[in-house]
Design brief:
Order of helices and strands: EEEEEEEEHE
Strand content: 35-45%
Helix content: under 10%
Number of helices: 1
Oligomer: single chain
CATH superfamily: Domain of unknown function DUF1254
Radius of gyration: 14 Å
């Protein structure tokens, strides 16, 4: 199920929210950059672990950034290294031993933001397809 950020005043938990084109009218994202396509996931691992999955393109910059409940950055995963292009999978757990695919957040709730650089209008639909591949499974 796909949701747009502007439609939902109350954040959904453990579900990706994909935005449409960003512009100055979109004030739910602080100073949104119109060159990026954004997806957000408000996570809650109080009761259950979650696993997030997706694909980072090899043709343009993309990142997955993890923030705690005070919007303090915890971890950023991007495709600047060749081994980080393509499929990614992370388990987020309050009990995880930190490792390459396991993250233990500082807080049980927070937000994950996925950013895709959109170089032109034709790339917009390509990045939308990457957004559609984002997944979140509650364990």
């Amino acid at each position: 199920m796909v949701h747009t950020i502007a439609v939902h005043p109350v954040p959904l938990t453990n579900q990706w929210i994909n935005n449409d084109k960003t512009d100055a009218r979109m004030r739910r994202v602080v100073l949104p950059n119109p060159d990026f396509k954004y997806s957000a996931l408000f996570y809650d691992v109080t009761q259950h672990d979650i696993t997030i999955t997706g694909t980072l393109p090899d043709s343009t910059y993309a990142s997955v950034a993890f923030y705690d409940n005070r919007c303090q950055p915890c971890y950023v995963y991007n495709n600047l290294s060749p081994e980080r292009k393509g499929h990614f999978e992370f388990q987020i757990s309050k009990n995880a031993s930190p490792g390459p695919k396991q993250l233990q957040p500082k807080t049980n709730t927070g937000v994950i933001i996925c950013r895709y650089l959109v170089k032109n209008d034709s790339a917009f639909n390509v990045m939308r397809a990457y957004q559609q591949q984002l997944g979140c499974t509650v364990k």
